[in-house]
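Encode chain A's predicted structure.
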Amino acid sequence: MKVEIYNTSHELGKAAGIQAAQLIRSAIEKNGTANIILATGTSQLETLKQLIAEYIDWSKVVMFHLDEYIGLPVTHPASFRKYLQERFLSKVSSLKAVILIDGEADPQQECERLGELTTAHPIDVALVGIGENGHLAFNDPPADFETETPYIVVNLDDACKQQQMGEGWFRSIADVPQKAISMSINQIMKSKNIICSVPDERKAIAVKNCLEQTLSNLYPASILQTHANCTVYLDKAAASLLDDQANGFN
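Encoded structure for chain A:
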């Protein structure tokens, strides 16, 4: 794992988007296609903005996404399908394939469908973030570090719900769904390359725990410490509690 620290979220997102694009182009050059995972939420806005600005032959790209609320209609402002459609898919040329999580389908059948598709498309580049509670995707603590099932049904903890409300996606915690479909920890870790974008001071405690604490499912994103090709992009606010921030890790 490598950590890079930038002054602002804009600089962070630009650097992360540039690296993601380079990795996608390399996969296309090597294999004729690239399989990617896109995350959502406010942490990804600048990274996706830069990715969209890069030259990529999207007709050779297969896209998966990380997680989706169960029972939330695609028309809801918090829908991650809606997020990706409005902030990414509508702004690039047609992809080879787009595999979105249908949170309104039968959850177990949807997990099985997604699992088969993911297994058939080994991921070249995964774009992820770290939640305020340290979660990776919707794998809230204590996260399941054991399951090899690609997609699983998870319960959302109170800290996760609070973050979703705090970011303005829901009017109250009571409005946040209880469950979601999430790519599992081990499936994320199978990605050949991981780009993790984490801006904002409210993520500082989670960043410190996940990057400096011993590997633990109580800090789910700490698993990234073990990935050989993971780069974590932070702004100074998110890195403000790190012991080694002065050294920049890089």
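Residues 9-31 form the longest helix (23 residues).
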